[in-house]
Amino acid sequence: MDEELLLTRILAGIEGGDDESDYHELVTDLKSLLDTDDDEILNRFYGSLSSMASSFLRCISAAMDSPVESGRLAILASDAYLSLLLSTNCPVFTFFSPIAFLSLLGSIRRYLKRRDDSTGQGSNSQREKGNKKKRGRGKRNLGYEDGEETEEGGFDAKLVFIVLEKLGSVLSFVHLDRFPDSLKSLVQTVSEIPLLVLEYSGVLNYDRLMEMCGKILGGVLNSDHGNMALTAAEISKSLTPLLLMGKHQARSFALGFVSRKLMSLAKDNSILKKVVSNLPKFLVHKAPEKAEPRGFAVEAVLEIVKAMEVEGQSEFVDFVMKMCQGKSNFRVLAVDIIPLLISSLGNPLGVISSENGLNDSWGLGCIDALVQRCSDTSALIRARALSNLAQVVGFLSGDERSRSILKQALGFNGETSEGKGAVTDLLKKRCVDEKAAVRRAALLLVTKLTSLMGGCFDGSILKTMGTSCSDPLISIRKAAISALSEAFRICTDEIVTTEWLHSVPRMIMDNETSIQEECENVFHELVLERILRAGNVLSPDSASLPSNRNTTSKDLDRDIEALFPEGVLVLLRELCNSEVSPWVTKICGSLGKKKRLKPRVALALQCIIKESESLWLSRSMPINRWTAPAGAWFLLSEVSVYLPKSVEWEFLHHHWQLLDKNDVQGLDEQGDEQGVECNSSTWAGDRVCLLQTISNVSLQLPAEPAADLADNLLKKIEKFNLHSAEVDAHVKALKTLCKKKASTSEEADMLVKKWVEQVLSKASKVTEKYIEGVSSNNHSFVTPATLGSRRSKRLDTVSKKLSKAVTAVYTIGSCVIIYPSADTTKIVPFLHTVITSGNSDSKLKNKLPQANVCLKQKAPLLYSQSWLTMAKMCLADGKLAKRYIPLFAQELEKSDCAALRNNLVVAMTDFCVHYTAMIECYIPKITKRLRDPCEVVRRQTFILLSRLLQRDYVKWRGVLFLRFLLSLVDESEKIRRLADFLFGSILKVKAPLLAYNSFVEAIYVLNDCHAHTGHSNPDSKQSRTKDQVFSIRGNDERARSKRMQIYITLLKQMAPEHLLATFAKLCAEILAAASDGMLNIEDVTGQSVLQDTFQILACKEIRLSVSRGASSETADIEEEGGDAATAKGRAITHAVRKGLIQNTIPIFIELKRLLESKNSPLTGSLMDCLRVLLKDYKNEIEEMLVADKQLQKELIYDMQKHEAAKARSMANQGVACGTSHRNGEPEAPAASEENVRDSGLESRVVSAAADVVAAKAARSVLREVNGGAATPPLSAMSVPKLRSSRGVSQSGRPSADVLESLRRRPTFMSDDES
Known about the structure:
Elements: H1 3-16, H2 20-34, H3 39-51, H4 53-64, H5 68-86, H6 92-95, H7 98-112, H8 115-118, H9 124-135, E1 151-152, E2 155-156, H10 157-170, H11 180-196, H12 206-220, H13 228-243, H14 249-266, H15 270-286, H16 291-307, H17 310-323, H18 328-344, H19 362-373, H20 379-396, H21 400-409, H22 422-430, H23 436-453, H24 459-468, H25 474-490, H26 494-503, H27 513-537, H28 553-563, H29 568-575, H30 581-593, H31 599-618, H32 632-639, H33 649-660, H34 668-674, H35 680-696, H36 703-719, H37 724-741, H38 745-779, H39 788-818, H40 827-835, H41 842-847, H42 855-858, H43 860-876, H44 878-894, H45 898-914, H46 916-919, H47 923-927, H48 935-950, H49 960-964, H50 973-990, H51 994-997, H52 999-1006, H53 1021-1027, H54 1037-1052, H55 1056-1076, H56 1084-1098, H57 1124-1157, H58 1163-1176, H59 1178-1187, H60 1189-1223, H61 1233-1265, H62 1296-1303
Antiparallel strand pairs: 1-2
Helix pairs in contact: 1-2, 1-3, 2-4, 2-5, 4-5, 4-7, 5-7, 5-10, 7-11, 10-12, 11-12, 11-13, 13-14, 13-15, 14-15, 14-16, 15-16, 15-17, 16-18, 17-18, 17-19, 18-19, 18-20, 19-20, 20-23, 23-25, 24-25, 24-26, 25-26, 25-27, 26-29, 27-31, 31-32, 32-35, 33-35, 35-37, 36-37, 37-38, 37-39, 38-39, ...
């Protein structure tokens, strides 16, 4: 087209162009004209255009503001405008305008926005059709850098690059120092581009675009564009949203620009350096509160700080230290930033000297700040501080020099080598924190500190970790197992080993499958693998040391311990502890069923036993005094069940002969000569485990040795001189060997029947003979022996006969257990004779002549053993059980022997499994043993009943649940821990409504209150006496605290809706009953019930906070539940709370009037409870008080009087203490006049101060209720108008008589108050 024609059309379009089509032609013609190379035409154009510059700028600005074609016309106009400014000899300052520049920037933003936002409300099909038409027009190719046409919804990526490139070129000679608004808009637009182009990331080169944006922002950071500090601040502010984003390319661009471009410029510019150093602080203030976005903000801050110089980093560290003392949101950020600073910035502990020779240990201040935040009032901050401190400890523990400094920083210096440091007390508190997230973080810190200290920890911390293994929450139990296992993995000290074995293996009985698996894994790793390694390191020559005949027992023990590394001997010894062995058996059984037990474990245990014996013999010690390492035989007996082929018969045979020949009698002198202690119980225990091992591997034994061993066992059983534990082992082993000896099962049963009947016959004869002897001696006239030796021999003989009879009776029970079909018709009568001996019933004496001897006094062991054997026989015979269960229940109630009561409890619980219907009526008698004077009996009863309840043999009904409650406050710590675990873990899952349904009844029972007409039972005076044992009656502080502890435990098991329902039940069934007269408040127990109710309603556990419904026990406490279900639940909760409190306040008011009329001491408790309710339910009560102003005034007045009385009482106590301290001795009866005058003055001052405090307290409570509005003065209140003889005051204020009448208003205060 002719240039002259273009020039004419452009000038004509500028003069009259007001339509969108005119703008399109103007832009097209202008772009075509600028593409020409004719300088003359361009100069003429510039000259003509200069005279109409304002019109041109108006037209081009309108074109750049045009939304036509999704902003395509606007971006083309911007391209043309920038080309004009860049053209040769163009009068830039004539054609540059801030308004046009702002339009240019706006066109870029609109073009990059999503197509849906700029193309109107047309349908997708219409837009797609329009796009197809555009593609078919055959426009000039403005595609990507590879030359192909690349359009998506009308978007031209090449055009964006062209405009931005030209914009950067224009900024090189157009300085914006005179146009600050344009500069600000430019910075904001370029900072938004990385976010605006997200939709087109697949059709443009994103990296190239970010590079161009960086060049533009870097270009304006020049003094030509104004104050660099202000520009840098504006850029930082504009990039802040990008810096606070999650993982995104735009965030990477912003971080890269700040950390590289800004930092490089700031090195040589002190003003700019100050701006850059303030950027992290600005980001901290802009950081969001939610956990995940806050984490991204912390990462961005750290990246910027890492790029700063040392001086700036030091300044920021000081800023973080100040943040630790600020508001909660800053404290959270500070504890999150500190570990990243320590791990990212160099030399935090000053280990490496700086260039000037100084040690900058800034990290110590950070560690100290974290330790302080571990005790923060906010649970979130405590949890974060503990977990971050654990992260810091884990990071700094890698360097040896840092380890020593870190120990000193945490208080673990050289003097406290036992693991006691400044953090020890902190961990004790945090491991039992009320918030689960804090407890979990504390256990994580303990795990890290274990590595730092090498496992050397204070015993109390280990105990705390052991207690945490019984935490109600699964995650806490897992963390406790992990922490304790880490300590045991690192340290093999006896205290660590003992605590681990007493805490972790018992978790095999946990309800959670994952915890059971974790327990199995750590037991396999830390116990079995350790024993396996100990067996592997033993060499054949390890015990061949020089013989020393003067070796003492202590020297030998020391050599044996040195022979077995990793504390294996301590480990084995604790495995056979009575509190650990049941769990070891369970774990070994579980591992064996899963085929995870390795044969090498059995071989290692055999090797340990052999090496111990070899070392003993190498010291020339008598072999009959040797005992294997404690626990070795026990563990071998457990693993041999699943590894029978791994145990050698020659090994078993050798040690059976060795242990069988050990005769305790007559060896004491020899043992003393050798300096070796003789332990018969150890031999008995080893024989039991050895026999168990033989039973386990009996199917692998040769036939002839098995038969010989069976004959040997039968002979030993028939001697009736074995220990009770050995009897069971011998009987079970003999039964197993009979199966091996017989070819068929019928033949095996015949063999067992034959020897069982033979043993029963001999045992009955031994027992009957002893009973006859005792009866005959009881009637014979015996002259006391004159010689001591004769009497001693006679006593020894009687003792041996008694021991033999006891063993015979025990053997009878063992035989009946393994062969229930045995004939016991001849055994029952003499056992009945024993258990009923000394009975006062004359009928029994006539029927059983032998019962005239009280064997309970003469032979208590035989008496107790007979009950145990009779119980075993009842388990085998249901008819016999039906006859004797009443006798068992009677003896359980009357027996004065703790051991017998313990065995009877075991028997009764076994009966409950086999004969549930028959034993159900005796459950209350069994539960009475929960208050037994013996701790062992109480604990046994609790454990056995808990198992029955879990297996549904016994139901949680009647008095059972209420009697279990007292175990929560038992004198024994072990029982309290078991009760906490039962109520907190098992019961909460199995019977979640039990605590709610029985709560009100528990209050009456624990107070032993029968003053309620609905709870009284006039017929059961005897039952009241029995129930007193299961009550905590009394109004003293100790009794109230125990009851309150039980109430709090029950409240913690309730769901939020049950808490609201419990609140309503307490008000309806106790408070309303008291106000209606159904509960006698003059009775002592009734007063206790009422006082307990006030304390419960005021305690924090029953309050339903907003976060109670959500899980505040998660790791991220601050996570919000913003879904619709949560909002709906909160709305329902608010409505329930509102209705609840509006029904409750009238009950309180009525009860208050009743207590005031009776001048009851409970009025103070009611007012304390009411004050708490006014604060906790202030939103709900506000509506009620707005509707009833008179009630509001009464509450203000009464609460003020109550607070005044409390403050005056406390102040008077302080005055009394101060007077006694001044005198230095108790006050004399006749005080001086001066002292009396001073005392009176102090009392008046104290009283006035108390009134002021009380008024302030009352106003503060009601101010919260009124939404922040202070209580109005009396003159503003709507009080009744009182007419006096003097008339109404002219000032409009109430007269003095009115005020005086209000002062004389009767209150509930006691007489001694004045």
